[in-house]
């Protein structure tokens, strides 16, 4: 799998995944191997939009003392943005062991040790019911 090294004109300077490198079937999105391979090569990608584009829609519903779960975190910066806004209890999950390890390393390097990152499948969460006040999903593939 390879990724386009060129930023596209309307992407705000981020590198986009070239369409020819997307999986051949939608079922591949449910395979952790696809994500491990992708996240081994990709530093950062925001599915849909960066937090700044939709924060006005969700911010009124979030309190800094809330516990927030982010499903399918990948290599997104969403948890960091929430933390910057004062939310101290953020847990991120992803099905990819590579994404989880890289996210943990990035957060450690930034000193953001309060954000928990867990390898988990959103179809079988390792948390008790009602463990979180808010669950954020921003572009996961529900198969």
Question: Can you describe this structure?
Answer:
This protein has 143 residues and is of the alpha/beta class. It has a domain at 51-137: Vaccinia Virus protein VP39 (Rossmann fold, 3-Layer(aba) Sandwich), CATH 3.40.50.150. Helices cover 27% and strands 13% of the residues. It has a four-stranded parallel β-sheet, with helices on one face. Helix 4 links the parallel strand 2 (89-94) and strand 3. Helix 1 packs parallel to helix 4. The protein is globular. The two termini are 22 Å apart. The model is unreliable at 1-14 and 16-20 (pLDDT under 50).
Write the layout of secondary structure elements.
Layout lengths: L31 H10 L9 H8 L8 E5 L6 H7 L4 E6 L2 H13 L6 E4 L14 E4 L6
Parallel strand pairs: 1-2, 1-4, 2-3
Helix pairs in contact: 1-4
